[in-house]
Amino acid sequence: MGLLRRYYLWLVLAAIVLFATLPIPAFWVAQLNYIGLFALTCLGLVLLTGVAGLTSFGQAAFVGIGAYTTAWCALNLGWPPTLTLLLGVTLTGFSAWVIGRITLRLSGHYLPLATIAWGLSLYYLMGNLEALGKYDGLIGLNSLTLFGHEIGQGQGFFMVSWGLLWVATVALTFLLNSRPGRAIRSLKEGRQMAEAMGVDTFGYKVTIFVIAAVLASVAGWLMAYYQRAVNPSAFGLKWGIEYLFMVVVGGAGSLWGAWLGAGVVRVLDEQLQTWLPQLLGMSGSFESIIFGVMLVLMLKYRPDGLWSWVQQGIGKTERVCNWDDAKALAQRPKPAVGDVVLDVQKISKNFGGLVAVNGISFQVRAGQIVGLIGPNGAGKSTTFNLITGTLPLSSGEVYFGGQPVHGLHARDIAKRGLMRTFQHVKMIPEMSVLDNVAIGAHARSQGEVFGAILRRNRGEEKSIMAEAERQLKRVGLGDWMHEQAANLPMGQQRLMEIARALCADPTLLLLDEPAAGLRYLEKQELIHVLRQLQSEGMSILLVEHDMDLVMDVCESIVVMEFGTYLTQGRPDQVQADPKVRAAYLGTEH
Amino acid sequence: MKLKQTLVAFATFGAVSTAAWADINIGVNLSLTGGGAALGLPMQSMIKTFPQSIAGEKVNVIILDDASDPGKAAQNARRFVNQDKVDVIFGANLTPTTMAIGPIATEAKTVQISGAPGKDGEFVFILPQGFNVMAHAMMQHLKAKGVKTLGFIGYSDGYGEGWLKAMEPMLKEANIKLVGVERFARTDTSVTPQALKLVSANPDAVLVVASGSIAPMPEIALRDRGYKGLTYQTHGAASPDLMRIGGKAVEGTFLVSGPAIFADKLPDGHPSKPVSIDFAKKFKEATGSDKLSPFAGHAYDFIVVMEKAVPIALKKAKPGTESFRLALLDALNTMGRTVISHGVMNWSASDHWGYTNETGVMVVVKNGSFEVLK
Amino acid sequence: MDITIAGMLAVDGLTNGAIYALLGLATVMVFVVTRVIFIPQGEFVAFGALTLAMFIDHKVPGTVWLLLIMAFAVALQEGIGVLRSGATVKQFLKCTVKPLLIPVITAGFSIWLAPYDLPMWSMVSLSLALVTAMGPLLYRLAYQSLESATPLVLLIVSVGVHFALTGLALLFFGPEGFRNPAFWDERLQIGAVPINGQAVIIFVTALLFILALWYFFGNTLFGKALRATAVNRNGARLMGISTHTAGQLTFTLAAFIGALSGLLIGPTTTILYDSGFLIGLKGFVAAVIAGLASYPGALVVALGVGLVEAFSAFWASAFKEVIVFALILPALWLRSRHVTDDEEEH
Questions:
Q1: Which of C279, C314, C321 is the closest to B185 by Cβ?
Q2: What would the pLDDT profile of C274-317 be if each residue is shown by its tens digit?
Q3: CA distances to A174, A259, A298, C222 from A251, in Å
Q4: pTM score > 0.90 for this model?
Q5: Of A75, A76, A44, A72, which is closest to residue A57 (Cα–Cα)?
Q6: ipTM, two decimals
Q7: What domains, with CATH codes, occur in chain C?
Q8: Which CATH number fits domain A339-417+507-589: 3.40.50.300, 3.40.120.10, 2.60.40.10, 3.40.50.12780?
Q9: Chains touching chain C at 3 or more Cβ pairs under 8 angstroms?
Q10: Considering only CB atoms, which chain A residues are within 8 Å of C155?
Q11: Interface touch A128/C167, C-beta < 8 Å
């Protein structure tokens, strides 16, 4: 079974070859051909929606661009299929790039709405252009011929279409198990965490958007040669919805969900068409009703789709630890003890009329643990966000290692070695602890999408994994490496965040309430880790409410109140200061 | 996973397979949902009256819905030729869907008899009148009325396009100027802007190219904006919906149509009168409605044509074989003059449209019903 | 293009825009309270118009059967839920009978009165009642158990509901189109531009509703309570606000507005079973451009959409839809420049 699991991709290929050669009734070949086309489009959608959390109803429109380009060039210019494929993919990729750059900055639910809008406009455009045959479309294409061989519309076509589907799935599998893959997975959890790890979220969003569009374009190319006619009704909103439906049914979280969803929906569609009229004595809209009801039921009771059942049966493949021989990643030069690592000068932030942070200044030196405390609403987390670049400054300057970092993007600051953890743990729950931590190394590595697909970065990947394992051991989580991150108790999750930050080889760690919600023993463990890090030369800036921990661990404490700097000093000084007492407890009278 | 799927498929296929080799299998592809449903559903009712057997051979009619989607129509056609092994295909009822079936039927050497105007071919026969035939009748009327300028407002799709392409050369020849061409989609809720544009051009007559319950809308919009000239509608609008929805606004509209829906209103000498009356009777039996649908008429005509052609083909070959399908093709090409509800059909190997220019009947809307013009 | 034509186009555009505004408002309202992006809003439009059409034809509208089916489905759902948690007979009866009351009564009246020659106002009221009653039932069937899901999941559920309702509409109403008689046949003149009575009614109604909703949500305690449920469900519940009631009430209002729009727009156009979707979508586009948050904003944008549509249809009738939907792109782009990262939607 283990062998089966390891080589499952090859097994699938073998199955495809088998099906292409076995005698199968023509009807089922036709079904499989359609399933292959749909699955290809759905694959892109799984990447977009399931993995990165960007819901798109517009895949159908991209299929249309691919199909129309193919048809028009083949009919009017007599181009061979290889050339039409090339042009189709280029045109679609370019349109996706433009549309992506315009709409992908939108958050949450705005994106799907935008996809509905441009999907509709593309549909109406295609249906109204004289050159594209308006609503009647283009007809009269010959069937597919590649390199002199007539592929036809039977099992030969099945071989080609499912072969392409397999190649795409393999490519995406490689992509998702790599550095850019982890970056893509992090998109689902929101921008903050990813950017803080150095990930260019917008860049990756556009990239996968284009990838999904390209896959859809290839499906369109295949569709044009299969149906030998291109008509706008296949690219309208109804189909955009149908592809999403297939992905939801199959399971948006996995690439195989695309295969499963396309297959189940297609077969169900066909069977409903045949059986319902006979069953109920009348025909028509039942399909639509049943599909609609099914979609709602699926989301209510099985939002992870059908693939999750299959996955439960198969079980997960355990990652093979093969990085003992990995080269170490490049290290950053560390500052000497006593050097000023972080210099915050009079930073301020206003939200409209509310002044959240008012001219705070302090410094952190190399090898120091500095605490930032204050009553609730003092503006501590905001200060953090200002320093790390998550929030833009209203005024003031921040110097890190002597260099100005005010005004930079969070990811650029992260690249320089300023890493942080979050008040509410931000991680990717479905990934393993090791993979989560490996995201931290994003800023230190280079491997990009193409390299990942072609598997050219295996060396760097091993180095990243080795580093991640090292950091996990450093914080004491070595045994939890392969565990799913969501299964960790709160205390370990916080340590995992620290390990992740450490993976970036930082010179300064910003920890946002690392002890919040921890039990006593967990806090002791945390203190131990912090002291250990300090002894190794790490500088740490800590926001914390737990006074015992702060007084114990920090050698210098900055106190804030109402966004303003109150005082700074050693723990015993701060404890004795009457201003601090007044801020926390009220004035004595 | 896929192996299991295929095994289940085999089992189902085996269980479902009912067609015995001597049965005549007819594949019917109609729009039962979507924009074309208004045309497809009455046709389905009519098709269901297909006789159980012809010349002693049992007939199986398989009806599938294409949801007004050409892609689906193509899929259904593939299914018909690959799985059901039909001897003939009837369909579709919209131009784009019917054109999608053509290449597949032709490749499988199966006759397609289309219920909508489209592209004819070696194996494709068209039951509805061609645009040219209907346009011809309309042109005669336009000339007789002394119309010098014409406005056009029609569907953006194949139906609208077909009429436009048919009318343009005829108008040029008759020296009638086309002063405005406006388009709209079947799903539009308002055509006021288009109507405004036409009204400001103020042509002598306006031709509305639409169908079913959508057809009255442009006319209402024109009248609302003060248009005082003549209005013409096409055979797609030749249904009671025109008056039901159009009300007062469509009084006096001229229409061209096939003879099918006029039954006993036709003049006595008209060859289609008895057939049309029979159609009206069967339609009432099948649907309980008096409001004749011209599209159902095409379905009725399909039955008539089959009842004539199939016995001829049966003499040469057995159903379910390629030779039977070729024999059927031959029969249709050579059976000559056939009187159907929609006129006199005269298919030949060189002409798969088959109607002569005399087929179009001009009617006018008077007091909420159609009156045949002499 | 002279002033008269421009004027007529403007009236046409604004009339359609007013309907889009009503639907846009309903969309905003539903989103603000329940976080559901209610794509099927347009279906209520078609239901409203077609129900009235069938009453006018002395037939029992298909809506009645749909309403009854939904009511029984809800009763079943409630019943099973109550049985599972172990309840008394009295509780069981209460839970299953309560949702059935209004639908059954309304349905009963409709079936009884349909064959008679009713005055317009009673047919209108019955139509409104039938469709409005579907609102809360729809919420309970499809959305209530998913209250804590993300807006994205709720959006996909809406899509499923849309599919189902469209199919049901075809089933119950058939593929034919209908056109209802106008409520007010008068023709008025503003300068050289003619306006018909129906348009006036549409304007007035739209305006009234917008003001009413604005006031309700902005100034009354109940309205604010409804908004609270969207911001923080648990917090609202702790304050004694029932999220279930909030959702059901909102959907009732949405169904009412949808049905009303259908009745208003019925006389100006032919409505088919699937006409509602595109109308709803345009109102929805207006709401989105306005940020799904602002009522006056949605109104202004909706009127704008109507105007753009009218003028594009005049100049380039074939490309009208392309223009209208492509416009959402620059609008969304402008909106995206104001988006901050503070609120992460997971």
A1: C321
A2: 888 888 888 887 887 777 667 777 788 888 888 988 888 888 77
A3: 19, 10, 10, 40
A4: no
A5: A44
A6: 0.79
A7: 3-185+192-332 (1.10.3470)
A8: 3.40.50.300
A9: A, B
A10: 55, 109, 112
A11: no
